[in-house]
Specification:
heterodimer, A: TIM Barrel, two-stranded antiparallel sheet, 13 helices, B: alpha/beta, TIM Barrel, 2 domains
């Protein structure tokens, strides 16, 4: 087992976004009492300075310390400190990724610890699916204790009697994001953290950049319908080969990379004309049946006999049949990508309206695999809207073996989910861009540590939760729908 | 000669629709360092033209909410706050998001494509409780976004011929083909402005569809567009019938009054039919609950079409059933009476987004009628009380040509999004989507199917 090093990695921005706005009025005579009182570091009077620095509002925990002995506003001798809700807070995030979730994910990426404070870091506000599930925890359930450390969160990715046994220490790996949809530093950050943790990340459909080769044992290579950058050597390189049949955000449509982001570097990797919009076909024209699918797998196995086969499909109502078909064609891992998953570019009408949310698909497929008596021979991974450690646990309780994550990792790198990844120069925050000026904003080492920290925080929460549920491993949680309840709709 | 259907779009910006969801505020402690300018890639921040030492006021409507300027600011001098003007748009059904989306579609004529996943609620009411389905592997040959030119969006309005048994007695085919399953309404809910009416009618002509118009709203300048006009009459408007030059009109609709005698309706329909035998005859009904005598009218070929009309929020009269549910019921009762395939069913009211078109068709209509959405395309803000004099969008003084372009852009965008959904489903003709509930998942069904077994015996549903 690898040892994971958690190191604090603060945000790369000067100004932080917080729930409150703290201001110092004109009456302030800079006595510095607030700086002495505040344990969160909102105020500071630097050595040799006469004045208190401008308040760092984002650190303020107003409602937490209102009655506490260190409440600045009530102890200020001239009453100059004003704490009010920040009007900006409501402009951040959306129903699925609330401001609380974004900020708590940033916090976890910074510290590597489960969030403290009073934000809701477990669920969003979409009013359905994961956001309405809750674990049934008895009042007598054991609180966190050192024993929780012994809980096993590892997942075996091959349950067939043959082939390599690959085990990952956490029940998730990173999903496919192509070179083109995200920047190279972003891919490197993800690959470095996958190696540190011993799990995986996926290249997506845009080819296998050479810079990723040092991390080859932790990089899944994807074969998608566009076949961009699919080469024999990249198939030979990978321990897991992913067939992407469809993507949850745009099921039935094929990948989109709009022309603006298809820079010469991206085009070279994909072997296409620069600046042309790339729309992958749908489906694989060589696959119209389970037999065709098997032929595909045979082709890959002929090149790389040791590779595990991962099949990524979206969630139409016949997804259970598709999953069984994939199994019989030889897949080791089936990845269901639900309708509310992330994307670098997709028509809004497709994101919202085509195919079902992942919550429904997991139970459907899990049950069907049990009925077909093959549940324990295939690994079922879920994706498409997994935002928190609790979403991971809920997916597994619904019947998945593990999950694939994507957006959360980008949020760890500083994504605010503004959704402008698709066109122009891409992401102004340097994540989902191929613009050489913008992508410099991310230092892969910084990014990797942020993702490593996030994973660590998630694993700790998962262990604590399993311990409280009286379970000793993540495998014991699978399909335990009896541990879930539905909360009232808000 | 074969001609491929094509709608020509062109950028049609309208200054009254330049609105962002948020406003960027520059506070007094800004010391004009210009880092915001350097880090904003959307040109929200500029230096003041008159005094280059200072920063100008941020151009908020260009902002795409990336927070880059705010987080790079060394002074915490920039703030993003909600735009109250944006949030006051529309109402609970016509949400600000719907209105802004239509504005963008009308400006550019493109499919809205963005990054990051879906950001809304898990599910909602009405059309938001439906997901369309797609097929993973077993599907006809097609090619994702490519090959969509092979997907047909044309529908037939009118009565289909019964099974052919006697060639001697073969009727003339009695239908009209429109290239998109969308008709227009020129003056929804009493909104009246000559320039907009003209633009809607003209756009209908260019799109190849029909625009509904009351006889009172007809004026002489519309004469060149008569083939694109569908007149609708209420009982109180029968006097206006004489002013309409009937030979050029393709469709006429009679609004079924709340209280009526069957004989009277039959007589009116007979009289309308007499005006021009080749004209399609439609009956507007307020809900799905049709009396037996109305089914007799359908059987006896007295009407060719039904238009199920809800209010602008999609509520049908009597019991406030949502239009989608009402369509499903009417569609099924027409099937049970064996008349579904003989007539055309339209639905009007509450079509506020592109996705509502395929969803209404899945529920059972052949085509939908767009009403308020066309006005929104022209800049309407769906205010609580519409005052045409104090209109914030100055609807009455808009150039009709600009409105025509915006409506065509909207139609093109919605048609392309319909193609998007059809292509994901592997369906190559929108006529095959009608009533195809197998291509949809309804919230209540799927919730029960996936979760109920977990939570029994606790019932999830009322």
């Amino acid at each position: 087992m690898k040892t994971i090093t958690i190191e604090p990695r603060p945000s790369r921005f000067r100004s932080q976004i917080g729930r409150y706005r703290v201001s110092l009025g004109d009456d302030c005579f800079h006595c510095g009492l607030c700086a002495e009182l505040c344990p969160y570091g909102v105020f500071e009077r630097r050595e040799g300075f006469n004045e208190v620095t401008a308040p760092n509002s984002a650190r303020c925990q107003a409602s937490d310390c209102k009655a506490g002995p260190f409440h600045c506003a009530s102890q200020c001798p001239v009453g100059a400190i004003k704490i009010e809700p920040s009007p900006q807070w409501k402009t951040l995030g959306d129903f699925r990724w609330t401001p609380d979730l974004i900020i708590s994910t940033w916090r976890q990426a910074e510290t590597g610890e489960a969030p403290d404070g009073n934000g809701e870091y477990r669920i969003g506000a979409s009013g359905g699916g994961f956001d309405r599930f809750d674990f049934i925890l008895e009042a007598s359930a054991p609180q966190s204790s050192p024993e929780a450390d012994g809980v096993d969160t590892s997942l075996l990715l091959n349950r067939r009697g043959e082939g390599p046994a690959i085990r990952i220490p956490v029940p998730w790996y990173g999903g496919g994001m192509s070179f083109g949809s995200v920047s190279l530093p972003t891919m490197l950050s993800r690959a470095m953290s996958a190696r540190a943790w011993g799990t995986f990340t996926s290249t997506g459909e845009g080819g296998y950049p050479e810079e990723l080769i040092p991390y080859r044992d932790h990089v899944i290579t994807q074969i998608a319908t566009g076949l961009f950058g699919v080469r024999e050597e990249s198939i030979k390189r990978a321990r897991i080969i992913e067939f992407k049949y469809a993507q949850g955000a745009k099921p039935g449509l094929g990948g989109h990379l709009l022309g603006d982001k298809n820079t010469p570097a991206v085009a070279k990797m994909r072997e296409v004309v620069p600046w042309a919009s790339l729309f992958s076909p749908f489906p694989f024209h060589s696959v119209y049946s389970v037999e065709d699918h098997k032929k595909h797998i045979d082709w890959v196995k002929a090149i790389n006999p040791e590779a595990l086969i991962l099949v990524k499909v979206s969630t139409p109502s016949d997804v259970d049949m598709v999953a069984v078909g994939s199994y019989f064609a030889g897949a080791n891992i089936i990845n269901l990508d639900g309708g509310y998953g992330g994307t670098g570019a997709a028509p809004e009408i497709a994101k919202k309206n085509i195919a079902m949310p992942i919550e429904y698909a997991i139970t459907k497929v899990h049950r069907f695999l049990i009925e077909e008596a093959i549940r324990d021979e295939v690994v079922l991974m879920a994706s498409g809207g997994i935002r928190t450690a609790y979403d991971v646990a809920k997916s597994i309780a619904l019947g998945a073996d593990g999950v694939m994550i994507g957006t959360s990792e980008l949020v760890a790198l500083g994504c605010v989910r503004c959704g402008n990844c698709e066109s122009g120069r891409g992401c102004p925050r340097g994540i989902a861009t191929t613009d050489p000026d913008l992508d410099r904003q991310i230092d892969p080492k910084w990014g990797a540590q942020r993702i490593i920290n996030l994973y660590a925080a998630w694993q700790a929460q998962l262990k604590a939760l399993l311990h409280r549920l009286g379970l000793r491993s993540i495998g014991e949680l699978r399909g335990r729908t009896d541990l879930l309840r539905y909360t009232d709709e808000k | 000669m074969y001609k491929r259907y094509h709608l020509e779009t062109s950028p049609a910006p309208l200054s009254s629709t330049e609105m962002g969801k948020f406003v960027i505020r520059r506070n007094d402690n800004c010391f004009n360092c210009g880092r915001c300018l350097k880090n904003c890639i959307y040109e929200v921040h500029q230096r003041d033209e008159r005094d280059r030492r200072k920063m100008a006021e941020p151009v908020s409507h260009r902002c795409k909410n990336c927070f880059a300027c705010i987080q790079h600011c060394p002074q915490q001098a920039l703030e993003m706050v909600r735009n109250e003007e944006y949030e006051s748009l529309g109402n609970a059904y016509w949400t600000p998001q719907h209105i802004l989306t239509i504005w963008n579609e009308a400006e550019e004529g493109r499919i809205p494509v963005y990054g990051a996943g879906y950001r809304g609620r898990f599910k909602g009411s009405g059309f938001d409780a439906i997901w369309t389905d797609m097929s993973e592997i077993v599907r006809p040959t097609r090619d994702g976004i490519h090959g969509r030119e092979y997907i047909a969006t044309a529908v037939d309005l009118g009565r289909k011929l019964p099974l052919l048994s006697d060639f001697e007695r073969l009727d003339d085919p009695h239908f009209l083909e429109i290239p998109v399953p969308m008709l227009f309404e020129a003056n929804p809910e009493g909104r009246t402005a000559k320039n907009i009416i003209r633009a809607v009618v003209q756009a209908a002509g260019q799109v190849g569809t029909l625009a509904y118009l009351g006889p009172d709203d007809y004026f002489d300048e519309l004469e060149p567009y008569l083939p694109s006009i569908a007149f609708r009459f209420g009982l109180d408007q029968m006097a206006g019938m004489d002013s309409v030059p009937w030979p050029d009109v393709g469709l006429i609709e009679f609004i079924l009054p709340e209280e009526f005698s069957f004989l009277e309706v039959e007589r009116i329909l007979f009289r309308l039919r007499g005006l021009n035998p080749r004209m399609l005859l439609s009956l507007r009904v307020p809900n799905h609950d049709l009396s037996d005598s109305l089914f007799d009218l359908i059987k006896s070929s007295s009407v060719d079409m039904l238009n199920l009309r809800a209010d602008s929020r999609g509520r049908c009269s009597e019991g406030e059933l949502f239009i989608g549910d009402s369509i499903r019921k009417l569609h099924l009762s027409l099937i049970k009476r064996h008349v579904r395939d003989t007539i055309t069913l339209l639905g009007q009211g509450g079509m506020a987004a592109a996705e509502h078109v395929p969803k209404a068709i899945i529920c059972g209509v052949d085509a939908v009628v767009l009403d308020v959405s066309l006005w929104v395309a022209a800049g309407c803000r769906v205010c609580a009380t519409c005052r045409i004099d104090g209109c914030p969008a100055r609807m009455t003084s808009l150039e009709p040509d600009l409105v025509v372009r915006r409506i065509i852009n909207l139609t093109c965008s919605w048609r392309d999004q319909l193609l998007e959904v059809l292509s994901a489903m592997g369906i190559r003709d929108v006529r095959r989507l009608r009533g195809e509930v197998g291509r949809a998942m309804f919230y209540e069904d799927i919730e029960r199917e996936s979760f109920n077994f977990i939570f029994e015996p606790k019932p999830l549903f009322r």
